[in-house]
Amino acid sequence: MVATTITNVFERVYTVMKMSLMFWVLTLMGGVVLGVGPAFLVLMDLYHEHGWEYRGYAWRNLVSLFKTHFKRGNALFYTVLFPQILLGYNVYLATQVKHPLFFVLDFILIAMFIFLSIAYIYALVLNAAFEIDFYNLIKLSVISVFVNFFKIFRILMLMMCVLALTYRYKGLILFGSIGIYIALMHWSLNGWIHEVDEKIEIL
């Protein structure tokens, strides 16, 4: 019993490290700018398929996986990133004006920024779980955010925990944070995926 528990812990730690390193390798394959999106998509797909089975994360398959996920990964990533850049710039401009109305505007803009981040996470998980075209993926991701606000709160708390942990232990940026992030986001939406799957079967 104890030996099995220890083995499981070591396997999960190793899987997290492997996922994190794979993320950075995939990111570099795309020259960073065109690598981040496919990297997130590939890792979420791998985790959805293999979970904590570290043998399923094969280095030899990275190039083919990168090519397969290149277009959609970048399309999805920049569909979210570009609006977030605009929102971030507008938040900066709004903070320069000292007026009560602009505090309200700041709140709205920040809420929209968070909304896009959550929708992106939904899109990653939904893409891993279902064969769905890009337009419907975006639409379903946006709709899903409004279905359960408790899930939004849970995702935000988990994201903040990962950020705080990374800030405290900088080495996790290379060897842990991404793997932990992927695993936690998938876990937080696993129930929602089952709900969607059941509704599809009924239809």
UniProtKB/TrEMBL annotation:
Keywords: Membrane, Transmembrane, Transmembrane helix
Any matching Pfam family: DUF624
Residue ranges crossing the lipid bilayer per the database entry: 21-44, 75-94, 101-123, 143-165, 172-189
Highest taxon of source: Bacteria
InterPro entries membership: DUF624 (IPR006938)
Protein name: DUF624 domain-containing protein
